[in-house]
Design brief:
GO terms for molecular function: catalytic activity. It comes from Streptomyces zinciresistens K42. This is Enoyl-CoA hydratase. Belongs to the enoyl-CoA hydratase/isomerase family. It holds the Pfam family ECH_1. The protein is of the alpha/beta class. The protein folds into 2 domains: about 5-225, 2-enoyl-CoA Hydratase, Chain A, domain 1; about 230-275. About 45% of the residues lie in helices and about 15% in strands. It is built from 12 helices and 12 strands. The strands form 3 sheets. The protein has a 6-stranded mixed β-sheet, with helices on both faces. α5 (about 135-145) packs across α6 (about 170-180). The longest helix has 16 residues, at about 55-70. The radius of gyration is 20 Å and the shape is globular. It starts with a strand and ends in a 9-residue tail after the last helix.
Length: about 290
């Protein structure tokens, strides 16, 4: 959901004759890989990094590519300017004419939900570096990440209620799992801006850092993850993400299966060997 104002901050839009992303989508979603870390940066600071459909699809493709690329072992997701992501920019995104039953559900399923699923399903750990406002879908994009770092100036807004809308992008799935149903309802019912310190206090954020330290901290965390046992981290991510959706028997069975799969990897063998040889492990992501 995009709003013309997010918590009192005006979000300018490109002129009507601009293309949907205000320029080539590759310039609006920056991407680079260095030292086994994939960095994805939302780059529409003039719109607080509100996502157009083309940008959303670009992020999905980049996450899928990072997941499949053995040379990528961690991902950092961040934004430029004052915003991490102000949600979905739907200007010009809807077809004119009568809305038919099923149109809205299809749009949500193929749009916002597909983006959040891309983060949750990415086989590499994803670190969100929240540099500013994260509102609506933008907040859920951060919450879907495996680890969330926030600048002190960051804030999180469940903006949907301000527009008479139901949360999308998996918000009603993510928030109760992170902060419990009562806190989730408070955030979603009132739509108040939540500062970074309060977000950390209630468990939405792993750590709050000074604005000037955000990028370096995110890089340090991602570099550490990239040096870890990649397949073990992927399997652990899957186990944790699925843990609240099943009973104990299912969780134990999934854990045993993950252990079986992981023990076929070189990193698992290296971990055991390095322990026996009393030296630091040298993981390769294989």
């Amino acid at each position: 959901m995009a709003a013309d104002d997010i918590g009192g901050v005006d979000v300018p839009h490109p002129p009507d004759d601009a293309d949907e992303a205000g320029g080539p989508v590759g310039a609006q979603v920056l991407h680079g890989v260095e030292g086994a870390v994939c960095r994805i940066t939302l780059n529409r600071p003039e719109a607080l990094n509100a996502l157009t459909p083309a940008q959303r699809d670009r992020v999905i493709d980049l996450l899928a590519g990072a997941s499949a690329d053995p040379e990528v072992r961690a991902v950092v997701l961040t934004g430029t300017g004052r915003g991490f992501c102000a949600g979905a920019d739907l200007r010009g995104g809807g077809a004119a004419g009568e809305r038919l039953p099923g149109d809205v559900a299809r749009t949500i399923r193929l749009g916002a939900q597909r983006l959040i699923a891309a983060v949750l399903d990415c086989e590499k750990p994803v670190v969100a570096a929240v540099n500013g406002t994260a509102a609506g879908l933008g907040a859920h994009l951060a919450f879907a990440c495996d680890l969330v770092l926030a600048a002190r100036s960051a804030r999180f807004i469940e903006v949907f209620v301000r527009r008479g809308l139901v949360p999308d992008g998996g918000g009603a799935h993510l928030l109760p799992r992170l902060v419990g149903p009562q806190r989730a309802k408070e955030l979603m019912f009132f739509g108040d801006a939540l500062g970074a310190a309060d977000a950390e206090r209630i468990g939405l954020v792993n750590r709050v850092v000074a604005d000037g330290d955000l990028a370096a901290t995110a890089d340090a965390w991602a570099t550490r993850l990239a040096a870890g046992p990649t397949r073990a981290l992927a399997l652990t991510k899957h186990l944790v993400n699925a843990s609240l959706d099943g009973d104990r028997a299912a969780a134990f069975a999934a854990e045993a299966s993950a252990q079986e799969i992981n023990m076929t990897t070189r990193d698992a063998r290296e971990g055991v060997t390095s322990f026996v040889e009393r030296r630091p492990p040298r993981f390769t992501g294989r």
